[in-house]
Specification:
The complex is a heterodimer.
Chain A: H1 4-25, H2 29-45, H3 47-52, H4 56-78, H5 97-107, H6 111-122, H7 127-134, H8 138-153, H9 156-162
Chain B: H1 3-15, H2 24-55, H3 58-64, H4 76-83, E1 119-120, E2 123-126, E3 129-130, E4 135-140, E5 157-163, E6 166-174, E7 183-186, E8 204-207, E9 215-223, E10 226-234
Helix pairs in contact in B: 2-3
Classes of the chains: A mainly alpha, B alpha+beta.
Chain lengths: 166, 236
């Protein structure tokens, strides 16, 4: 990378949001940091493409989603199931009721629905950008979003919570 | 629930995550190593291609470049190649054949879009020339950190045809769910695909569409930011 200072600034700036996005996609905080680190290593290796991308955020989020998928694939093949889901207590969400309710609601969505919700409403990508990141047609994003919003609207915990939002 | 409320809740949930400091130094070190691995793959390809040319041309190149994955490969030549720690990333000039252009960002004829990437001839398709309806088998040509025989293949395959020096997607693989066989549909139909991880073993069998037009094709899958492809010819 010719301009490592620019890359370092990019890492420092994007690190928190990438980790948070990975947590919202379903990772523990430790897993999220691994996924974010993998994403940024790949960004370094393809830095010229990252900087030349028309939509840098979309490009980086696609790397993040793929890194997340890769981590799931490695888990699938490399780790034995346990009776209890590993849920580290230091993931930063436990102490906050609202965040916990949101996370539990996200847990109940399908992986595809969860991705579109996080990319569209947390990463603030457009539907078209979300479709590009996920490599699916726009219509798929729309339908997944519609189903996800229906599911979230029916979530009793969220319903109670949203009643308190001004 | 209104979208505005959902945005607020997600922002709140995100803000409650307190990431540690960015491991800038680790990322730089790993990033440099990754770049060296990638450039090393290019160098190994160049050497192998040159050797193949000396030995006897393109048909030999396919054999010479048929490097094993880390989990496969039994003969001594393959083990020698993997033992050298070499992986091949030829940047789209596979098998000594011509280099097809990399799809441009935003090119709707391929996955392209935000993450248009160099196509890597990472896959071996056998046999290399088939008729429509024939079954080919696919395996990795090399070890890739995120795509290896060990971890199996995903399902998001596409079949692209070389037309006027450009690759254009002709078919996408559809999968109806557990217990069914994957089938191709024409890319022009714009149907949704189930995004599933399917634990196939390798070599991975695929049936070439019965209505495929004869020509030069490649079978591709995007992993990470790379388009990993294997070439084949469909004859009449």
């Amino acid at each position: 990378v010719d301009d490592e200072a620019a890359f370092e600034a990019f890492v420092t700036e994007r690190w928190p949001v990438l980790v948070r996005s990975a947590v919202l996609l379903g990772c523990s905080r430790a897993e999220a940091e691994d996924v974010a680190q993998t994403t940024l290593v790949r960004c370094y290796a393809a830095w010229s493409k990252v900087t030349a991308a028309d939509n840098r955020d979309g490009y980086v989020y696609r790397m993040l989603v793929n890194a997340h998928r890769d981590s799931r694939r490695r888990r699938w093949w490399g780790e034995a199931p346990t009776e209890e889901v590993d849920r580290p207590s230091d993931d930063g969400l436990e102490a906050v009721d609202g965040a916990d309710v949101m996370r539990r609601a996200l847990d109940r969505l399908s992986a595809g629905q969860r991705q579109v919700v996080v990319l569209r409403y947390y990463a603030q990508l457009s539907e078209r950008e979300t479709a590009e990141v996920l490599g699916v047609p726009n219509g798929t994003v729309k339908s997944r979003l519609a189903r996800a919003l229906d599911a979230l609207a029916a979530d009793p915990g969220l319903a109670a919570l949203t009643g308190g939002i001004a | 629930m209104e979208e505005r409320e959902l945005v607020q809740l997600l922002q709140r949930a995100g803000e409650q995550v307190a990431p540690g400091p960015a491991p800038v130094r680790d990322i730089l070190l790993e990033g440099r190593a990754e770049r060296r691995r990638r450039s090393g793959r290019v160098r190994v390809f160049a050497l192998a291609a040159a050797a193949a040319a000396v030995i006897g041309g393109g048909s030999v190149a396919a054999t010479v470049l048929d490097l094993p994955s880390l989990t496969g490969g039994a003969d001594s030549a393959e083990n020698a190649a993997s033992g050298a720690g070499s992986t091949v990333d030829d940047g789209g000039a596979g098998g000594g054949a011509e280099s097809a252009p990399t799809p441009l960002s935003g090119d709707t004829s391929t996955e392209g879009g935000a993450a248009a990437a160099d196509a890597v001839d990472a896959l071996v398709v056998t046999p290399g020339a088939v008729s429509p309806g024939d079954t080919v088998k696919i395996r990795t040509r090399m070890a890739l950190s995120s795509f290896s025989d060990q971890s199996g293949f995903g399902i998001a395959w596409r079949l692209e045809r070389l037309t006027d020096d450009r690759w254009s997607r002709e078919y996408t693989l559809a999968w109806a769910g557990t217990g069914s066989d994957p089938t191709w549909w024409p890319a022009a139909e714009k149907r949704a695909v189930r995004d599933e991880l399917v634990p196939y073993t390798v070599p991975f069998p695929l049936v070439i569409p019965r209505d495929a037009t004869p020509g030069e094709y490649r079978i591709c899958q995007t992993v990470g930011t790379e388009d990993l492809c294997g070439r084949l010819a469909v004859t009449g």
